[in-house]
Every structure is written in C-alpha cells, then in structure tokens.
Amino acid sequence: MQPQIILLKEGTDSSQGKPQLISNINACAAVVDAIRTTLGPRGMDKLIVDAKGQATISNDGATILKQLDIVHPAAKTLVDIAKSQDAEVGDGTTTVVLLAGQFLHECKRLIEEGVHPHNIIRSFRKATRLAIEKINEISVKINKDDPKELRSILEKCAGTSMNSKLIHQQKDFFAKMVVDAVTSLDELLPLDMIGIKKVPGGSLEESLLIDGVAFKKTFSYAGFEMQPKNYNNPKIAMLNIELELKAERDNAEIRVNNVEEYQKIVDTEWNILYEKLDLIHKSGAKVVLSKLPIGDVATQYFADRDMFCAGRVVEEDLKRTMKACGGAIMSTAHDLNDSVLGTCETFEETQIGADRYNLFRGCPQTKTCTIVLRGGAEQFLEETERSLHDAIMIVRRALRHDAVVAGGGAVELEISKHLREYSRSIASKEQLFMAAFAKALEVIPRQLCDNAGFDSTTILNKLRARHAEPDGKWYGVNILGEDITDNFTACVWEPALVKINALTAASEAACLILSVDETIKSPRSSHDGPPGGGPMGGRGRGRPM
Ligand code: ADP
Ligand code: MG
Fold this sequence. Notes:
Number of helices: 17
Shape: elongated
Strand content: 15-25%
Largest sheet: 5 strands, mixed
Bound molecules: adenosine-5'-diphosphate, magnesium ion
Helix content: 40-55%
Structural class: alpha+beta
C-alpha cells in the first residue's frame, strides 16, 4: 500500500508531458486553420458575428483573431503575436500566425519521435538569426534622394498591402491617396495626424484627401444659414464653454417674490451670455468652435457679426484642430488673445455626400490630413478603413526603414533555400531541425497558391528549381497567371522589416509553446465557472479582454 500524496487542491486539472505539448500544438493548429484561407490577394474574407449580433467582415489576421475570443491558454499566444505584429508594423498579421503554426506543425513530428523540445528550440533560434541576416543581405535599399523614384516605390508597397483586401480593384487610386497622406506629414510621421472619416453613400472613387482637418458639421440652431461659410486666414477660437441661455438657469434654485425680480434674473442671464459673446467677438476670432453646445442666441449673434460657429464638436476633432492650427482649448472667454487663437489658410464648409463638412486647410502648426471615405455599407467602409490603415503603416515603415524585399513567397523561399544549404554543413542532429524550419517557411507560397486555387505542388517545384539558379532569388507566385514570376520586377514589394518582424515573432511564439510541458488549471480560475469568475480572472465568453 502506497500512501497517496495530495499536492494540489481537489478539482485542479493538471496535464503534463508529451501529450500536453502535442495537445497545445493541436490547439494552435486549430487557430491557424481559422485564418489560413485569408492569406494573399486571393484570400477569402471572414464574417464574424459577435455575442451582440454585430457582424464584422475582415481579411486582417489580427482583427479576426481578436474577434474570435480564444480561451485556450496556449493558442492565445498566437493571438498575442498577431496583435503585436499589428501594433509594431501594421501588416503581415496573417503571415506571422501561419508561420508560427507551421513551425509547430513541423515540430510535432519530431516531438512524437521523442526529440527533446530544447534541442529544437536552440536550432530554431539559430535558424531565425540566420534568416534575418539573409533578409538584410538580400533586401534592396530605396534611394531616397530621387523623389520620383521614392514615390513610385511607396505606391507599390501600399498597393501590395491592399492586393489582398476588398478594395483591391481601387488599389491604384488608394495607393496614391495613402502616399499623399503620409508624405504630407512632417518628419516624425505621427499616425494620429491622419484622420479617417467615413461617409456612407457614393462610390469608393469619390473618396477624397483633404490637406487639413475635416469634420462633419455639428448640429446647429437657426441663424446658422446666415453665417458665412468661407474665410481666408481666419482666427479660430476653440472653447470649452456653453454659449446657451439655459446653462445658468439650470444650475441653481432661485426663489422670487415679484415680477421685477424675475425680470432682473432674466436680464442678468442675458447679460452674462452677451458679455461672453462680446469678449469672443472682440478677440477677433472668425471661427468659433466649442466642445459644448452653442445655442440659438449665440448663433444669431455670430451671424450678425460675420462669424461662424459650431457647437458640440467631438473632442478628438477639436484636439486635432488645435494641434494643426495652433492655439489652445479655452474654458473661459476672458483671456482670448492671439496666442490662444489658432489659424489656417482657408476655412470652408462644403457638401460631401449627404453631409456637410467643415474643412480647415493649410494649417500652420503641424501638418495633418484627413481621408474622407465614401462607399456602400457600413461594414464595407470599416474594412476599407482597416485596409487603408495597413497601407498607411506600410508606407510609414518603408519611409523610415528604407529596404524592401519581393513578396508572393519569394523571400520566404530564398531564406528556405539558404537554410537548407546551411543545414547540410551541420554534422549533428541539428541538421534535421534546421531543415524542418526551412520546410515550414514554404507554407507562405503554398498557401498563396492554395487560396488562389492553383496546384501548389507543381508551382512549388517550379519555384524551388528557379531559386536554385543564380538569378532566381526573387521568383514567387504569380497570382494573376497561375505561374511563377520575378516578383521584384512585377512590383510585389514589401518592406523588409515586415518580414523580419514576422519571422522573429513567429519563431519566438513557437519556441514559447514548445517550452511548456505542463498546464495547471486551478478550479477557481477555470473559464467555465460562473460569470465573473474567481479572483484569478476567469474570463467568461464575450467579456472584454
Ligand atoms: P497579412 O495579414 O500577413 O499581410 P495578406 O492577406 O495581406 O496577409 O497577404 C500578404 C501576402 O500576400 C504576402 O506574402 C504578400 O507577399 C502576398 N502578396 C500580395 N500581393 C501579391 C501579388 N500581387 N502576388 C503575389 N503575392 C502577393
Ligand atoms: Mg497584408
């Protein structure tokens, strides 16, 4: 009789050893399968309906994984790398998950045969280092001195990132717009200085780029029609005060005994308002924006004095106006002087689709621009915005780190070939692991073919043969012709940084999952407990991360 040793609380679920590792790998494979078909220009989109019935259509790996709300602890790692890739470089989110999944897939065989995970991890780390060295060696530097050439390169990078999206048919149009937008910013290329506004209706080609701040006309009172809608070099007052009569009345309880006293209160109220309005008028401001409402009296007052006003401006828009036009957001009408008033070259209000927009062009302080998107359904516009975001990130990356590689699986195959060659020079069993890493890289061209309906085996064989030749390093999948082409001359370009980041993140994630051989789940933090869970977290389905 052996005494039973109880180490963990009753109900604790712990699984360990090889079966645990294999089960983690299988969970990751399930995640990868969910987004596998979205890769590349011929990738499919996913429609995800959340608990509230909200539908999202997307092709972006990170967006899809975020929506899926995965609870498996190991599979969550994949979601995390997709998110970090999205934050770090903005594109290549599907690629990074696919690569990580494929690395694990190749390992599964080895683990089942009894290889210790640490041997694999060591080789994978080394392979990653070699791969990055290779990318740096073969990437092509952009010549920034020639503005024309630089522009065409940037447009191509933006175009490649849009190839796989819903808007690929308009990619030339949007590539120009994105490059215009990014190059109009100043040195630091701040992302929040590109505003994107969605106006449902119209066609995609009616989208436009405004070199300044634009936002939808806010609600306005009578008298508004008489205000001028055009100014050159106006002074702009940005306020956080309510210019309405009701304000003072609502804030206090007043007891009056006769009509005269009541009249006095009403008069005072009007005086307070008029005093504020006079101060604003005297400051010389022509355009008055406020975060809080501007009432009908104030609107009429401004109209009489040849001024424009807009109340209830969204905070984000007001802040962008302030950053672009200078000045400050004031919560009093008293110290309005030139140092707190902003300015811009032209202000106007125009019709865009069914909405009226306020446009501030030629802003002196920071360079900013706004993309106004037109198009059909709401979901379509949202996916367009996400695709433009990817493209904008890519152009920023390309401008900052000036090296590109050819896409369409070309760079992956070239690295794969390099690693295979290298692995043959190793005498130990490390050779096998590095070859597995090299084989896993082929998943990108293979998946591109599968998604386009091509025979992936034939195309991969052709590609391997071509890469073995000295001038074949940029050969990749030709999505248009079910064949292989030199993707560098075909202008399918991607910033080298996207690939480097994707490889590093994918290999790190794979190593992380390989190094876990035991999961201990305490009963209180189990996710199928009551909603709210224990103090350890215990996130139920549908609750925010
Ligand atoms: P990710 O989220 O990883 O960016 P995408 O769906 O955007 O995934 O697909 C990117 C892949 O598609 C890259 O490997 C890229 O090289 C490839 N690709 C893009 N345009 C083309 C094209 N015209 N021909 C071949 N491959 C392309
Ligand atoms: Mg992409």
